[in-house]
Design brief:
Elements (H helix, E strand, L loop, with lengths): L10 H10 L15 H12 L6 H4 L3 H13 L6
Helix pairs in contact: 1-4, 2-4
C-alpha cells in the first residue's frame, strides 16, 4: 500500500484507527483474519488513491484490524 497520508500518518493507518477506536472490545480483533477477497479489494482501493470509507465498505472490525496488520507488515523496516 502506498503512502497517501497527511503529515506523517498514512491514510490507511489513520482510517483504520478511526474505525477501530470505538470497537476495541471486539474479541480477537488483531488475532483473527478477515476474508482475503475483501482485504485485497480494500488494499487495491487504497493503492489506487481512492477515498475509502471503512464504515461503508468494510464495517467489520476483524477485517479492518487485518488491514492495519497487513500494512504494518508490508513496511520496509520493522516498527
Amino acid at each position: 500500500m502506498k503512502y497517501q497520508g497527511i503529515g506523517y500518518i498514512p491514510a490507511v493507518v489513520a482510517k483504520c484507527i478511526q474505525f477501530l477506536w470505538n470497537r476495541l472490545e471486539v474479541v480477537g480483533i488483531f488475532r483473527e483474519s478477515g476474508p482475503y477477497v475483501k482485504l485485497q479489494k480494500l488494499i487495491d482501493r487504497f493503492n489506487a488513491g481512492d477515498n475509502v470509507d471503512l464504515e461503508e465498505e468494510a464495517n467489520d472490525p476483524i477485517l479492518v484490524g487485518h488491514l492495519l496488520k497487513k500494512f504494518l507488515l508490508m513496511l520496509p523496516e520493522p516498527v
